[in-house]
Amino acid sequence: xxxxxxxxxxxxxxxxxxxxxxxxxxxxxxxxxxxxxxxxxxxxxxxxxxxxxxxxxxxxxxxxxxxxxxxxxxxxxxxxxxxxxxxxxxxxxxxxxxxxxxxxxxxxxxxxxxxxxxxxxxxxxxxxxxxxxxxxxxxxxxxxxxxxxxxxxxxxxxxxxxxxxxxxxxxxxxxxxxxxxxxxxxxxxxxxxxxxxxxxxxxxxxxxxxx
Length: 211
Known about the structure:
Layout: E1 5-21, E2 26-41, E3 44-51, E4 55-58, E5 64-66, H1 74-103, H2 111-125, H3 131-140, H4 145-156, H5 161-174, H6 181-194, H7 198-209
Antiparallel strand pairs: 1-2, 2-3, 2-4, 4-5
Helix pairs in contact: 1-2, 1-3, 1-4, 1-5, 2-5, 4-6, 5-6, 5-7, 6-7
């Protein structure tokens, strides 16, 4: 008999109430949820494995926030969301400009590169970036490669280790194939600016060289 082990995450509602939603810019109802991972056998939960951070979900727009949103006044909550949006917009712009540099397509951005950039932004930042926004970010960005690299370095502190790895991978994905020695040097420079170990560069280049 084959035993099927697994896990799944529940999002139990702990409480409800009213709060100011910065995205809606209005007062709405909310649910305070507790995500919890459960071990299962034959898809039947047996025991909890891990509790994740609780979060607040807006009943109107389904936006989610950290629990601290319930303790903030309107002005503070709105400032925090606006700052986060600006940070994400800047990071998305950096990804657009880096991938365009690696693809050498600044003057004629292909549909293929546009799709690759949209996918990278989605994976790194969990947001959707339409083609017109991608093209606008590329046009507004620096044409000098040195400035593109400085921009990568400026934003590295805003990325998690996973995010840095995804940005580095996006740079390799966008690069013209087959990979050349000069491409490898560019990837190594991106990794240096991100603070990613050289071993990761070697592994990525080996992976894509084998394609």
